[in-house]
Amino acid sequence: MITDVLENKPTVILTQTDLILQAIACAETHRFAVDLNLSISATMPYCIREVVKISKLESALNGFLRLKEKRIPAMPIVDQKNQLIGTLSKSDLFGLDKESFMKLSSPVLHYLHVFFINLC
Length: 120
Hints:
Elements: H1 16-25, H2 40-43, E1 54-55, H3 60-70, E2 74-78, E3 84-89, H4 98-102, H5 108-119
Parallel strand pairs: 1-2
Antiparallel strand pairs: 2-3
């Protein structure tokens, strides 16, 4: 997740896929380069898209429903200051048991805590 320290521009996500697309775009010149003097949107315009995120206060169930709705594998969990504090992904449903199922309506961080304790 890339944020503008001056908060003038929206938060964006730069993924491995974005880097691969950049490498493909540069294949003809045989030069993989990113001009650090330019903005991400000028250098890699295809990586600018809505950042789907979840507040740490939202339920895990809301998060999983949003993952399904947006057809994405994961999303950042943010605090009240919009700072990254974790991630929620489809893989957090693997090994779901009765106790963690009952916690799906809990705040996402509580769900993840219960889920990971049960995995150990």
